[in-house]
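Need a sequence for this fold. Nothing fancy.
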């Protein structure tokens, strides 16, 4: 017999509205500590009250994402908004659409193919840090720099030689779409998109410009036909065929490209920005990571083949993603009544999983609030349940870009550590304010001090 989910007691009239609005991550964390691993929040005045469920235990997460995935669908308002703004690509589609798309897109993300992108990532890293040698007082904002790096890296992988045609539009227009998804995804009243409100007009014009640039490049690749030997993702998506010879329409290619941009740049930027900031503030961790990089690479560029030989760097990245999971909350809607971790979740319930909370759960982590890459030492990892750490989601809808993102971050970090010493700029104990947008991001700059280690980086 499953138990009724306990309610997080809030204000008598507004419920938990204020807490959820002010700092949703803190509200969820507090709920786990004070109420338990499965909770219910109510928000808003009586008559307009909405209810959301939070599931925090590793076992509950496993059930929602994996073993009961069929019952927990992407039918919630956030996914509806993403679908309407950037199309029905792999992140947002469901059912037969999804199965067909995953089959078509999977070959682009095989380990062998993704490993080939390491060279482009290395080139983009060098380009990003080229300005560091002349930074005033050696202080740089790694949040802004890693955002630009990750944007260039994913745009290069997608558009290949046409990166310069696309990057400016993506840089200017994508944030407008993100802002609209967020605003509409959480708003109780959503005006039709066709109404000419200033916000709708802004979003539509951004959407049109993004669609135009994608459509132009897709049309060129389609015209080049089977002889086209380019291996960027647009070309591969245009050429991919199912066993019966069917492929993706031009619109479907565009949907995938936009979804990869959405899912694949702010997320990796968050991991990299925080990794550099944490390394700057933890000299012992930094020294160990740098020694590993120097020993393994002996000054040469990092490639995909080096990843297994850089286990400590990987631990640093995993620990960064534990404390700063770029996707800090993910949501589903229950189709039918379900039992999750012994609690009764009713049909129609909005269920939220929060890596932010599970990654700080005292049952799974020795020092939940401390940056300690030893949390990912093999012996500690072996004793932990699979879903205690899930920055890339899990089950049938797990992130398809996971390997690419880990490779990208490892190559970029190794390249930076080879070239620069990174030291803390902020005083000890400084906390970074956060902004929960489409991805979790620092709300302001992440400053570190850099000093060139090599003549090449200083030149
Ligand atoms: C640190 C980097 C990244 C993080 C933390 C991340 C996180 C996630 C998470 C949590 C999901 C599952 C969402 C859910 O279940 O509701 C997801 C799905 C997805 N991600 Fe990523 N992602 C990252 C990088 C990337 C990159 C680089 C790409 C592509 C270039 C990408 C493409 C996708 C796609 C297409 C899906 C949907 C997969 C499906 O439903 O089959 N992601 N990602």
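Here you go.
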């Amino acid at each position: 017999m499953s138990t009724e989910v306990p309610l997080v007691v809030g204000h008598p009239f507004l419920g938990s509205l204020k807490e959820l609005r002010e700092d949703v991550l803190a509200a969820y964390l507090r709920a786990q500590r004070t109420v338990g691993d499965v909770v219910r929040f109510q928000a808003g005045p009586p008559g307009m009250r909405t209810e959301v469920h939070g599931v925090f235990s590793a076992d509950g997460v496993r059930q929602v994402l994996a073993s009961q995935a069929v019952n927990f669908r992407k039918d919630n308002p956030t996914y509806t908004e993403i679908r309407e703004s950037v199309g029905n690509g792999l992140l947002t589609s469901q059912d037969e659409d999804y199965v067909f798309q995953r089959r078509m897109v999977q070959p682009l993300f095989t380990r062998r193919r993704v490993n080939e992108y390491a060279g482009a990532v290395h080139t983009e890293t060098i380009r990003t840090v080229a300005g560091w040698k002349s930074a005033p007082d050696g202080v740089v904002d790694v949040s802004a720099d890693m955002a630009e790096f990750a944007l260039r890296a994913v745009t290069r992988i997608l558009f290949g030689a046409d990166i310069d045609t696309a990057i400016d539009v993506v840089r200017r227009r994508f944030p407008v779409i993100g802002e609209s998804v967020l605003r509409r995804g959480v708003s109780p009243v959503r005006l039709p998109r066709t109404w000419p409100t200033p916000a709708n007009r802004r979003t539509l014009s951004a959407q049109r410009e993004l669609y135009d640039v994608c459509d132009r490049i897709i049309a060129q690749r389609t015209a080049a036909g089977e002889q086209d030997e380019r291996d960027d993702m647009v070309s591969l998506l245009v050429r991919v065929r199912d066993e019966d010879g069917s492929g993706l329409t031009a619109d479907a290619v565009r949907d995938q490209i936009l979804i990869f941009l959405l899912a694949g740049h702010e997320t990796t930027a968050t991991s990299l920005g925080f990794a550099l900031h944490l390394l700057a503030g933890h000299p012992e961790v930094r020294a160990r990571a740098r020694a590993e990089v120097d020993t393994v690479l002996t000054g040469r560029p990092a490639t995909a083949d080096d990843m297994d030989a850089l286990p400590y760097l990987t631990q640093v990245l995993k620990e960064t993603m534990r404390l700063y999971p770029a996707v800090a909350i993910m949501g589903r809607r229950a189709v039918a009544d379900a039992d999750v971790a012994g609690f009764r979740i009713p049909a129609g319930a909005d269920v939220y999983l929060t890596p932010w909370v599970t990654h700080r759960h005292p049952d799974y982590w020795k020092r939940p609030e401390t940056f300690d890459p030893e949390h990912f030492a093999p012996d500690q990892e072996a004793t932990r349940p699979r879903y205690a750490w899930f920055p890339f989601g899990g089950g049938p809808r797990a992130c398809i870009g996971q390997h690419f993102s880990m490779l990208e971050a490892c190559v970029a970090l190794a390249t930076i550590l080879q070239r620069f010493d990174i030291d803390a700029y902020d005083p000890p104990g400084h906390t970074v304010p956060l902004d929960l947008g489409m991805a979790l991001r620092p709300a302001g700059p992440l400053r570190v001090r850099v000093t060139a280690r090599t003549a090449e980086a200083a030149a």
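For context: The chain has a mean pLDDT of 92.
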